[in-house]
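Re: the pair you flagged

First of the two:
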Amino acid sequence: MLLHQLDLTTALRPELLPDETLLFVQDAVGLYEGKYKLPNYQDGHAYLTSHRACYVNNKEPRKHSVALNLKDVERPEFYAGFLKSSPKITLYPKPNKRPNLSLRGAAPSPTFSPTSTPPRRGSPLRPAPPPPPTTAATWICPICSFSNPVPSNFDPAVANANTPLPPCLACGLKPPLVHLIKAAIAANRQAQAETIPSPVVDQDPPRRTESPAPVLSGAPPSEDGPECIKFSFRAGGEKIFYERLKSALVQRKWLLQSAPPIPKPADDGAASSNGLPMRNKVVGIAGLERRGIEQRKNNEVMIGNAFEDLEALMTSAKEIIALAEQFAGQANITGNGNSEASAVLSQSANALGLVTTKDMLGSGSDSLYISELARNIAEFLTDDTTGILKREGGIMSLVDLWAVFNRARGGVELVSPTDFERAAQMWDKLKLPIRLRRFKSGLLVVQGRDRTDDKTVASLLGWLQELHSIPPKTEVPWDWYQYGQGVTAQEVAERFGWSVGVATEELEMAEERGALCRDQGLDGLRFWENWLVKLPPVEGTDALTIHFPQPEYE
């Protein structure tokens, strides 16, 4: 099968691989295998990345989400749709990635089942096509110009820095990886050009039976061509998806995984006694100038090596993009908000393929943008590397989150407060691990879905119980060992990592539930354990009273 199981993030989006970037998102998409619909894969989102074409189901995303590696695709095909037939994009696999039909019920030899019609007597069977001619791939040693054979198990699509390279049979030196990749690709193209299918004429072919119904695992193999995967677009976006798919197939960014580093020029300097170059340490302004000169030389060598040919450019794409980002950062520092500099940076970002969030969305971009923004915020909050929600004690106000989120985007496509609140309200509908909560005062906060009021009250009471064994900082006129101490909103915020506003709301929530009671005094508002419901009433009285010893005054 071309499709494989897809790992999702906490926000139910495809988990990107290293160096993988998101290119396009479209909703209302279904999947076909051949000309048959795949059950349970007809209502979902299509995510196109630089490495894969992914499908995420809306109802059961963890169970029915699959992906197809672009390195296994030979060519795409576009169908614009007609009448009730929706537009489709077909992905045809490479010859070595097509499934073995004998494993799915097709007979490898020309046999006939009892229900099929036997061929008429005298009609010859269709002979199997001859195997394509193989062209021996060779590479020329750049040292001694000796012609060496390329190993038969060398695959240019998956070769990386860890792939063992054969040494030259004459001088014994290993070739560069790019040199071997170019030779293998050229040999494959020559072999495909020499493969000419021979025409087969059937005098009286047997009649074909009806195609069987699709099975649960997918559609039966087609006798008219190789198995393929189709993305059916029911709400538009197919043209942008197709254009960016073709661009991704041309760029082949999956070849950048484990790419060899760019060689750096040797440092100029006096040679030491053992013959190795010795670098003179220079400090101050002269050292900074020398470091700048060395950096410019390194950039010149890197850019020159990158643009020698296409394969070297692909190998050096990481360093080229990092260098462009470095130039953009320097322009931001020196530009001081210049509109001309901003326009140049925008053009540079477009040239590098750095698209914004709205540029990744298809038709119906308003609702789709809000839902994808909601997933993006959820991933931002639940990211273990940043730990934003955990650092805030598991709960933070929506305004604070909006400020932190926009600050983390680096000034690129800032989110308005209205869109941010609309995205937060989508968390329950999308079944994400965080939720939006509104307090009685109208304050909107963000917290984990597993966080409840009962757990919050238990945490507050647990801390107040600990204060029974901690003496107060000043002498108090009550039995602190029995009754504990009162706490302010500021103390609660410092204890649990909340903001003061969130701490006040949580204390009032616990007060409404009867777990706490308030004490308004000269030193401010404090909250205590609710002893009014814990102590028994005093004999001879109807009301519940608590007797605290009065302080003595001189």
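Second of the two:
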Amino acid sequence: MSGIVGVDIGNANTVIGVARNRGIDVIVNEVSNRSTPTLVAYGRQNRFIGEAAKTQEITNLKNTIGSIKRLLGRSFNDPEIAHEQKFLASKVVDVDGQAGVEVNFLGETTKFTATQVVASFLGKIKTITANEIKLPVSDVVLAVPTWYTDVQRRAMIDAAQIAGLNPLRLVNETTAAAVGYGVLRQFPDGASKNVVFVDIGHSSLTVLIGSFKHGELKVLATAFDSHFGGREFDYALTEFFADQFKEKYKIDIRENGKAYNRVVTAVEKMKKILSANAQAPINIESVMNDVDVSSMLTRSELEELVKPLLDRLIVPLEAALKESKLSKSDIDSIEMVGGCTRVPAIKSTIQEFFGKQLSFTLNQDEAIARGCAFVCATHSPTLRVRPYKYEDVNPFSVTFSWEPVAEDMSELEVFPRSNPVPSTKIITLFRSTDFDLEARYTDPSALPGAINPWIGRWTVKGAKPTESGEEPAVKIRLRMDHSGLVTVDSAYTAEEVTVEEPIEEPKEGEDAKNVPTKKVKKWVKKDTLSIVHASTSIEQSAKLALIERENQMVEDDKLVADTEDRRNAVEEYIYDMRGKIEDKYAAFSSDEEKTKFRAMLDDAENWLYEDGEDANKAQYIAKYEELDAVGGVIRGRYLKAEQDKREAEQKKRDEEAARLKAEKEAREAAAAAALAAAQANTRADDMQVDKDEAATAENDMDVD
């Protein structure tokens, strides 16, 4: 049995949901946080991922990689890379045509593709989950932005597989939140509800309009702005303070990456304070050149600074509403998702647009992960899950083309924008030889910065002329699956034949031979054709090499962690025994032993901070055992004395208990004897009374 896991890979933080205990839980990481920083850092000896990467971010800024899902699946020449670079302190480089990063790792300049970086992070998520739920983790459902193209979706799947995960499905982030919303609510049979979901996270904005019925969600429309999020607000504020500090303190934080990053962190906290207060301060000690900076910002000043951003907020709202063919009066609820929806100016803008109160019934930070976990649960053979059907829509139009031209056509828009997902279409071409199909996005300008709209190429093999020498009809089954991936499912040759079919079904008891028929033409499948698929996914041989490299880095990280643990054990032993040899263990060692052991501890300490700084695990173990060979003897004497003391005390307690028991038994015996004597005396007295009464009665008779 394996865990049932859903992962929301946020641009800033990642949330993990698991299906267990008859519900969906969000699990905590190694430091008991419900979200994990989406960061991967490279160091002199090992990698730091998640919380560890966040801890050393300032000191290792250029080797700490954020915004990893924004780089995923992009070419280095993509114009989006230039936009991302302003949010990254690390260097984005060309790695075999892909966007990657250049870092100093293990003392060498090393390049990693974005896919490798994401795989490293997903490996950490896998470890966190397995440690928390005490089960192996393999099958997962991953959330991706609605605006992800086919190449980005395939890159996410590749990254998951490199990390040793099996991505059962990719779900659009806002769709996952909508699924979680629908599952937890009951709708009367036949009744429907139109809900708008506004998801504003760290880097992007997505609007989804869905129609809910009992056990069903139908996405009517989606719209997005991939450059509207919390980090855009932080960037605007940081640039404002950069100008202010340059004028007021004569320092330019743009020239110092660490200083700039510290201001970004400070303005992010300030932004959160301004969500609940009219004004907030910013104070940073020694931001650069030993200069302390401070300032104050009001909420109205913040809103003025980000006004260009707020003006763009309405655009996707209007686009989604128009595409759904609904009016504002048709909307029953507006659900807010994502951390940036806490900004008062954003809430008021959306509320004014719809003229309705906003709803915050979902957990803004965890709704997506919970929805993904539920979708994963529906795939589990071991869980009984309430049936729930959902249908998404395609955000970008997809066109297929072929060569040579057939019947004056060389291409066809097969999956138009807002086409239901999943969806299957069948096209017919007449071919007598092998031929190629190619898929691309119809309108490259609609894509979020991608230069190359190419999706994939498929070679269909095995088509042959008919017996009469004509080109046979080739039926090609095209599919956009649940994950939004475009594929060619199958291809086969078909022959058109004429058959007779009854005009209407025969009545009960009527002879079928007497029922009138009509001739109709039907396609009958003949030969199955083979398909060779060429997509943007990593080739299997290259993927296996990346898996091997990732596994090796995981082992190396584990070895470094174990080595650090052994080093800490030696250090702790030195300081612990140095104090105890003069105190607790003083009476159990001779002066000669103390002198020798002190010298050993001093030598070990010097070695630890000089020659032993880069020692290996075995050397630390050997040093610990060398010290314990002497210290252990002294500690053993102390423990033996303590054991003897405890045994003596226990013996004393046992003797005291035995004495008390004997005294108690003696008292009980004496009491029992006294009681028996008293009872005997009582019986004797009773007999005497009886005799006296009898004698009195006899005297009375004599008198009479």
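The first strand starts at residue 5 and ends at 9.

-B.
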